[in-house]
Each structure stands twice: as C-alpha cells, then as structure tokens.
Amino acid sequence: MAMPRKGSRSISVDGTAFRWRIRHRSTHCRGSGWSPLTVAVERTEEPGCVLLVSLPCARPDNWLGERTIAVRPALVAGCIRRAVEQGWDPGRPGPAFALTVTEDELAALLGGPPQYLIPFLWGMIPEGGGIRDLPRCTEIWSRDEKSTSRAASDAP
C-alpha cells in the first residue's frame, strides 16, 4: 500500500527522490508515549517497499510530556542510507522494512548529540531548559508585583 501524498515532504538521497512523512494524528499508543515516533519513507517514482523508521523518542504531541526531537531532512537522509546498508530495496514491492534507531545510532546519524525537546503547555522546552526557553510563552501575571486585573479572591 502506498503512503498518502498529502502531508509528505520530498527529499533526494544519493540521486534518488523519496517522500517522507510522520502520521498527522497520533494514535492512542503513540500519544501516550507507549510507542516511538515513527517516520514513513518511500521512493517517489515507482514506489515499492515502504521504510518505517522508529526513533528513540515520543511524538511531539504526546500527552505525557515525554521527550521528543524535531525530525529534520538530515536525519531522514541518514536513516535512508542506514536502511539501504541493512538491505532495504525501495523499488522492490513487499511488506514494510522496519528500521529501529537506538540512542547511539541517533547521535551518529545526526553527527552530534540530539537536541531533545520536552512538550509543555505553550510549546517545547529544550531538554535541561526552563520556562524562559519557551519562545511563544506569554506571562499571564507577574509573581513579583500585584496585578490589577486579578480578582480580589485571587490576591495573596
């Protein structure tokens, strides 16, 4: 079965055109962090066997705040090359080829340590970071000074 074109991204690896995508909606197992973040890849022209890459982290929209990473084209290209080394033939029809990436392999594929993110109410916090690292976070009220917009029952 071919991968849906909607929501997929194009990438060229060693002269071959591929499409890759992450499932748009989370399943219950993936949303709760029980299953890993998975990327599907197939050849653009004459697609055959689909590559399913399992990464050692959760989806960015997981419900429990498990760490995640941003999947970038460089990581996808590295996974494609690794799968071909392990015997994936993207032109051969058949069942999906599974590639499971470990923590150590992830660092090798990225060319350095991964930059993990942790989902938080308004965005993503870099692992080891704090609330000040949220680019879209807005302060609801200051803890240092009294806000006139708070109700009297909320005042300390």
Description of the molecule:
This protein is 16% helix and 22% strand. The termini are far apart. The model is unreliable at 136-156 (pLDDT under 50). The chain has one domain. The protein has helices at residues 28-31, 73-85, 103-110; strands at 9-13, 16-21, 37-43, 51-55, 97-100, 117-120, 123-126. It has three helices and seven strands. The radius of gyration is 20 Å and the shape is globular. Strands 1-2-3-4-5 form a five-stranded mixed β-sheet, with helices on one face. Strands 6-7 form a two-stranded antiparallel ribbon. With 156 residues, the protein is an alpha+beta fold.
Secondary-structure topology with pairs:
Blueprint: E1 9-13, E2 16-21, H1 28-31, E3 37-43, E4 51-55, H2 73-85, E5 97-100, H3 103-110, E6 117-120, E7 123-126
Parallel strand pairs: 4-5
Antiparallel strand pairs: 1-2, 2-3, 3-4, 6-7
Biggest sheet statistics: 5 strands, mixed
Strands of the biggest beta sheet: in what spatial order?
A: 1-2-3-4-5
Computed CA radius of gyration, to the nearest angstrom: 20 Å
Oligomer description: single chain
Mean pLDDT: 76
Principal-axes shape call: globular
Give helix % range: 10-25%
Number of domains: 1
Low-confidence residue ranges: 136-156
Helix/sheet category: alpha+beta
Q: Please report which band the strand proportion falls in: under 5%, 5-15%, 15-25%, 25-35%, 35-45% or over 45%.
A: 15-25%
The beta-strand count equals 7
Alpha plus pi helix count: 3
Helix-strand string: EEHEEHEHEE
Terminal-residue CA separation: 61 Å
